[in-house]
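Recall the central idea of this unit: under ordinary conditions, the amino acid sequence of a chain determines the structure it adopts. In this exercise we apply that idea directly, starting from the sequence alone.
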Amino acid sequence: MHTTIGIDVSKATIQVAGAVDGKFIPAFKITHDGFGFNQLNTVILRFNAATDIVFEAIGVYSRLLKDFLETHNYPYTYLNPLTAKKQLEKLRANKNDLNNDKHLAETQAILKSAKS
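Accordingly, the structure predicted from this sequence is:
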């Protein structure tokens, strides 16, 4: 079983989408705080250790997520916005924030970017 989790970070919320063996699980939104990170941790723990986690580096907002993942020793791919845009363009013509989480999960599953 291979699981990929794509995360789109904003100021107050985090949108999470995942795929298990290429089949998408329903996306969900969590708060950008300790309570939300506990929910994310529960989701990650449901899957195996081979989970690919990918998200865009968007300044201070993504640092909390990065710290959370490092504290729990979860490997992740931290993409700069230009790299994310280029990866997403391989799937579709226009980048928009509506489905960034899902599309980041798709590109990670296909391209297998290096983990941190």
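The chain has a mean pLDDT of 78.
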